Amino acid sequence: MSDSVKYLLPEDRIPRAWYNLAADLPVPLPPSLSPATGKPLGPDDLAPIFPMALIAQEVSTEREIEIPEPVRDIYRLWRPSPLVRARRMEKALDTPARIFFKYEGVSPAGSHKPNTAVAQAFYNREAGIRKLSTETGAGQWGSSLAFAGSLFGIEVKVYMVRVSYNQKPYRRALMETYGATCIASPSNETASGRAFLSANPDSPGSLGIAISEAVEVAAQNADTNYALGSVLNHVGMHQSVIGLEAIEQMEMAGFWPDVVIACAGGGSNFAGMAFPFLGKKLREGKDVRVLAVEPAACPTLTRGTYAYDFGDTAHLTPLMKMHTLGSTFVPPGFHAGGLRYHGMAPMVSHARELGLVEARAVHQNGCFEAGLLLARCEGIVPAPESTHAVRAAVDEALAAKAEGKPRTILFNLSGHGHFDMQAYMDYLSGKLEDRDYDAAALNASLELLPKVAAE
């Protein structure tokens, strides 16, 4: 129907395999390195904190990785997620553009994160693991792993960035409702946390610091593994169900997107939406722009350096080649906590270097303005992170209006903002500040990038 608003797939159309962009890239992804030897990582380097199945996925160059049936069965609780034509927003903007969004907020945890949380919990359970440690920024990932852990009988401990721990008490409550333990980071529970608190007792925390704490716990306890909600290849691959479904749904709608948009912090929801479309472009020549949108206060893709760096602040992780602001960089405490990460997924960074990905940095007031427009036109209150994608979609629609030419815009609405209403209260009351990064602190952080012979 030409006037449809929702494009829905039946449960039997849930993808049966995840898509791996590595199979279609014209240049292979640079390997992650052991910080001890400077050599490419082997399975033994990762085995203390990850199950072997995920290690194999991390280095795979196969185009498709079969989704286990127990994982697909749980996906049925919310997948396939809807594709929505934002007709009321189109009308409000008086644009000739066609605006579509893929809505991942229908998951039990309210975001795209369960797509990989369920998979990671499954593989750990199969490997006999009954405890997982992790970090979370805004709480979307922590909520999702807590949800997945409850399904597979896994005990979950979450180190939540302190500024978000204080800003978002209901996210914390959701994790605890699912049975997880949530701890403000930096904490006194770990050596790395105590070191950060000693240096700065009032530290707002960062994802890099929280990762250090979670990795330390996993590395020091044989019965505990580590789970990561973004950045790594296998995480982005698990999220590819978003784009794979969206391709089918856009075909149902009768349009191919001119531009695909998603917010980007660590890169997982961006990869999940954009990579299947990039695969079509690389294999079949189907033209499409893909745009990653990040906060101006933490502009990893637009301001960061492409270099080998640690994924955490205490330097417990392997070295990954990625766009980075430096592992010691602590961004200001803006509301989009899930985008406050110093690095970008190596696969996203590599695609950016190859010219396959565009990037744009935006301030949070403009994002919340766009978020309110979506809420008042389409009824969905987006998470602060997702408002970055909405902002870019609005800008693309206004550009189409200025040119007097139609274009088809697709963005990933990666989660709802029902637990983020303090941010909207701050915006509506005029208290929300546009924060920029500290240039001196950024330069100092970049000066500390590790020296790697492979570069």
Automatic annotation (TrEMBL):
Gene Ontology CC: cytoplasm
Subunit text: Tetramer of two alpha and two beta chains.
Residues with the N6-(pyridoxal phosphate)lysine modification: 113
Reaction it catalyzes: (1S,2R)-1-C-(indol-3-yl)glycerol 3-phosphate + L-serine = D-glyceraldehyde 3-phosphate + L-tryptophan + H2O
Gene Ontology MF terms in the entry: L-serine hydro-lyase (adding indole, L-tryptophan-forming) activity; pyridoxal phosphate binding; tryptophan synthase activity
HAMAP family associated with the record: Trp_synth_beta
Domain Tryptophan synthase beta chain-like PALP: residue ranges: 77-415
Name used for this protein in its record: Tryptophan synthase beta chain
Enzyme class: lyase
Function: The beta subunit is responsible for the synthesis of L-tryptophan from indole and L-serine.
Native species: Blastochloris viridis (Rhodopseudomonas viridis)
Keywords, in A-Z order: Amino-acid biosynthesis, Aromatic amino acid biosynthesis, Lyase, Pyridoxal phosphate, Tryptophan biosynthesis
Involved pathway(s): Amino-acid biosynthesis; L-tryptophan biosynthesis; L-tryptophan from chorismate: step 5/5
Similarity remark: Belongs to the TrpB family.
EC number, as in UniProt: 4.2.1.20
Cofactor: pyridoxal 5'-phosphate
InterPro entries reported for this sequence: Trp_synth_b-like (IPR006316), Trp_synth_b_CS (IPR006653), Trp_synth_beta/beta-like (IPR023026), TrpB-like_PALP (IPR001926), TrpB-like_PALP_sf (IPR036052)
